[in-house]
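User: Sorry, folds how?
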Amino acid sequence: QYSKSLKQLQRSAQALGSDDSEPLELAIQVVAEADDQALTGQLIDFLMGEVDGIPKEAKYLFRLYMSKKKYREAAKTAVIIAREEQNAGNYKHSHDLLLGMCRQLMRQQIPVPSDMSSALLLLHSYTLARICVKRGDHNTAARLLIRVSNSISKFPAHTVPILTSAVIECHRSGLKNSD
């Protein structure tokens, strides 16, 4: 009785609030096992906050799409989650999420969306730039930091340190005319 189970799990999730993720995880499992479009729609509405006015974390929507093998929708959700993490300054978590999603899409032979690959490229450049600075490879670090600096609005938590590092690395590597 998937429908009754879903309703009970939704009530439980509402009663417990955002502190307990177990009812939402179980609801995702129920909907995935039921393989019913109507139940899927009900859970999506619940996760989006259309039922109780409280949108749930995007990670649950991502997990639902992954369990239903709707990889394109999961990819869009992953980009949104990664953007939120990136805005909060959690670049490693954002990078790992996008990289994992890209790998899953490639395994399913689904083309990686361009916004996902460009977001991953930018985060990867930031990560590699930090490694290059530590190793003393100032030329590569400068070029990577120039790429990151061109999209500095996507790094709101660390704008000043990134731009400062870019200037320093460009100076060290002799790229004084780079903007």
About this structure: Residues 1-68 form one domain.
